[in-house]
Write a structure and sequence with these properties.
The protein is built from 14 helices and 12 strands. InterPro entries: Amidohydrolase, Aminobenzoyl-glu_utiliz_pB, Bact_exopeptidase_dim_dom, Peptidase_M20, Peptidase_M20/M20A_hydrolases, Peptidase_M20_dimer.
Amino acid sequence: MKKLNTQWTGLLALTLMAPIALAQPKVTKDQESVLAGLESKSAHYGAMSKQIWDYAEVGYQEYKSSALLQEELKKEGFTVQAGVAGIPTAFVATYGSGKPVVGILAEYDALPGITQDAVPERKPLDSKKAGHACGHHLFGTGSVASAIAVKNWLQKSGKAGTIKLYGTPAEEGGSGKVYLVREGLFTGTDVVLHWHPGDSNGADPATSLANISAKFRFRGVSAHAAAAPERGRSALDGVEAMNYMVNMMREHIPSDTRVHYVITKGGEAPNVVPDFAEVYYYARNKNREVLQDVWKRIVKAAEGAALGTDTKMEMEIIGGVYNVLPLESLSRVMHKNLSMVGGVTYTDEEIRFAEKIGESFGATFGSIRKPTDAAKVGAFSMDNSGSGGSTDVGDVSWAVPTVGMRAATWVPGTAAHSWQAVAAGGTSIGVKGMMVAAKTLTLTAMDLFNDPALIAKARTEWEDLRGKDFKYEALLGPRKPALDYRK
């Protein structure tokens, strides 16, 4: 295992001593001790997150990132079960015994095709093919930090109960958590906590978009495109015909549905009729029944395209995730703790970094979003409209009561999956937001261990929302994990 950058660790120690913003109710001595323990290790966890930022491993290829997190947990006394659900980079780390059982999710996959140095102007890194544009290096490390803090508190207090850290790879399109749900790895867990990097702080109960994704592969017949075109059957024609029909279909599907695609293979040379072509599709809607209906029509378009171009088509489902099931009761507990911890306060150097980043946002930065917004915690509100994104946390939330939050790891105004997100995530700005999340998750877990009635209330709400006849069936069907979907 590569050693952490000690120089970077030392710099973090100087920049991460931001005060904990207190709010009502006041921090107890017990909580204060736990928060101080986390703060004392912020430089260490910052260096871990930077190491994973440097690794930038894509879905199901996160061998070094997963190993680093597992090593940290083993060192802290957790029992680690690696390679769960048929996924080499997935794991479950457990400490304690008995009830309640509180789980924490950790992600650590990067996004392909976007790289950036940790500087406030566009500077791609030619040495890399992927980058942490969604901040999962912070997500994984912050969750591990929280699990360890909860373990230390359980050990010191003598409280009964179990803390579990779920290492979940390939959130970005690979549906990693779905396989863990399908394998029953959340059975017996009472509540699951999670968080996500963002450009603001909040713990509102919000849903997401259910998602199905697949690769459609068309196979035709090669021929010389000029000398003998009549002998060819273009697989690319099949892809383009499918895309044309799907684009026409957009007028006749619910307006809140999202359909997008990328042609991943279109041929090698213009003078050769392509005998193979591939297109990668996503479809989303907050209502999975609507999504499934739309998806059937997309598949029909693919079948029709193959028929019309005299090619053959095969489809491989890559991923499929449910919408998140939001729970108001648990979200109120988490929001209380987030308000107690407070947001992110920038140093003068970080403000200059943020202002430079802000110049790339255009006219909106400075009039709508400011660096000081990172210190704010938004008011509690309900939002069931469905965000523009999808997450495999959705499947977890239908298997066990689940609650999450976001922390300001990026400069306010930053969009996810952007170079600006990669840049801030590699600095002390990202680490400060990560520690806000780690502290909030830890306080929330402590509340659940101290007051089992919170868990009982959440479970009643959860069962009412799911419905008594609910039966989980993965949207990706019986397929095995798509371990090579990023290769």
